[in-house]
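Researcher: Next entry in the queue.
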Amino acid sequence: MSPENRNLYWADWNREAPKIETSYMDGSNRRVLVQSDLGLPNALTYDSQSSLLCWADAGTHKMECMNPGRDHRNMVLEGLRYPFGITIYGKNIYYTDWQRNSIVEVDQNAEKESDEFQPQKRANIYGITTAYAQCLPGQNYCSVNNGGCTHLCLATPRGRSCKCPDNGDSVGCVEREY
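Model: Structure for this entry, 178 residues:
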């Protein structure tokens, strides 16, 4: 998720046609970002500091990054074993590896692994995330009075979108865009 540009990003693990997609946070403007040369892109992260969307692919054994607004992909590292989770902090990318049962640090600039952490308890490490000491700057149109929405308030690049649950008609819900 990218709060500052109000987009969602996800990887589709479809074994015949894997892809990486995006949409606005309200689900509108859905589009495919990457659909070629993918195997099992099960690790995906967006770094708001660099505006990079990065993924690790357990099928192709590669780590790649791109700016979602452009088509160019940059190979960061090849020869990964079985990556599962990924996050970025500064110039480093951290990913979990199920075959190594570890967290691996990758220096983006040098395009090579720089460190590895193996917990005492050896097991598959699932997700990994970066927790910043301070919240990233930005405006949340939904934070005051639920953005004027009766039920769901979802951010869009243009502002916000009010959405209803499945039974919205019966609970007096009103859908609109601001």
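Model: The longest strand covers residues 83-89.
Researcher: Noted, moving on.
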